[in-house]
Design brief:
The chain is an alpha/beta fold. The protein has two domains: 35 residues; 122 residues, Glutaredoxin, CATH 3.40.30. Helices cover 46% and strands 17% of the residues. The chain contains seven helices and five strands. The chain has a five-stranded mixed sheet. Strand 4, helix 7 and strand 5 form a beta-alpha-beta unit. Helix 5 runs parallel beside helix 7. The protein starts with a helix and ends with a strand.
């Protein structure tokens, strides 16, 4: 091989061995990411142990004055699973939510009618309802501190307050 061919090849950048190595690295990253994302769905957090449906919670809300907190999720939603494994499994978050609200676990695939009535287009989503009206929403996961702050801020709002949507950005 001439010196000119060798210098042309070195200017092109990657040799065949370099390309093979690069492909192996990229493939490994894809496999690892796929394995991590295919974990089983997280268990339903204990704070939803009452298994309240939206109509049941709305009825209890009318009697007690507590707002309804809807957690909209799906088994295939990675951020939803992270939120369930994280903040929603924190005992402090559970205490605040159970004391201040009537929590409803809404699987949008199993309860698509309720999800549609609430206008749920993206998940995870936390919705605070008072008198069957949305008074606050948060789209995306939150830390424990953010979840507690969201509940503390919105669990006492009046029913006629405008709906507010925040995002985890």
């Amino acid at each position: 091989m001439s010196e000119k061919t060798k210098s042309d090849r070195s200017r092109m950048g990657l040799s065949k061995l370099d390309l093979v190595f690069l492909v192996v690295i990229v493939a490994s990253i894809v496999v690892i990411m796929n394995l991590r994302s295919n974990r089983a769905p997280a268990d339903t957090p204990a704070l939803f142990a009452q298994n309240l449906t939206l109509p049941e919670a709305s009825q209890k809300s009318a009697a007690t004055g507590k707002p309804v907190l809807v957690y909209a999720t799906a088994s295939w939603c990675g951020p939803c699973q992270s939120f369930k494994r994280g903040a929603l499994s924190d005992p402090e978050v559970e205490k605040v939510i159970v004391e201040r609200t009537l929590p409803v676990y809404l699987d949008i695939d199993k309860e698509s009618d309720a999800a549609g009535r609430l206008g749920i287009m993206t998940i995870p989503r936390m919705i605070v309802l008072r008198d069957n009206q949305i008074v606050a929403q948060h789209v995306g996961g939150m830390s424990s501190a953010q979840t507690i702050a969201f509940i503390n801020e919105h669990a006492g709002e009046v029913a006629n307050a405008p709906a507010e949507i925040s995002s985890g950005d």
